[in-house]
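In this supplementary section we document a worked example of the pipeline. Step one takes a protein sequence of length 198 as its only input; no multiple sequence alignment statistics are reported here. Step two produces a three-dimensional model, which step three serialises into structure tokens for compact storage. The input and output of this example are shown verbatim.
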Amino acid sequence: MEKRRKVTNPLGLAVLAWLLVGPMHPYELGRRLQESGKDRTIKYNRGSLYMVVEQLRKAGYVAAQETLRDTQRPERTVYALTDEGRHELYDWLGELVAEPRREYPQFGVALSLLSVLAPAEAVALLTRRLAVLAGEIEETTTAMRSATDAGLAWVFLIEEEYRLAMWEAEARFVTKLVQSLEQPDYIRAWQETFGSQT
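The serialised model returned by step three reads:
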């Protein structure tokens, strides 16, 4: 069962995980998220990162360790993980790993309403989607190969491997769906139901 958490933004979980490595300023956290490619999995911008760090501080999961003063830049506060934050990190991550969640992806919404589109239009749109998926699959495969060739351990690429598996599965699904939409029986049934409304 899903717990009620003081901080629910997945970015907060990423911040806790990075602070496990050591104390950091939010700017440094953002830089590391980008360099490690985690920004492909966790949506954020600079403002949301600072907001999440403040939420974590109020929740007692992180604490200001020091404030750096530099005449060239504004004050920068370095945050460290608290014991409570360490516990929250492992508890929250454990829940996400162990318990599947019902998610509501945008494509699922589109599929639930697909019958509204004329079969030929649906096929054309899904064919465009297949082309985009093929590009994503190629880009991700190339990036993963490059990272492993450079010596990056597989465990640091598992979210990319998962994303690749989802895209490949979606491409297979869409290919089969296109074939179904092109069947004369479906086209005839669609015409009987929606044909007079177009």
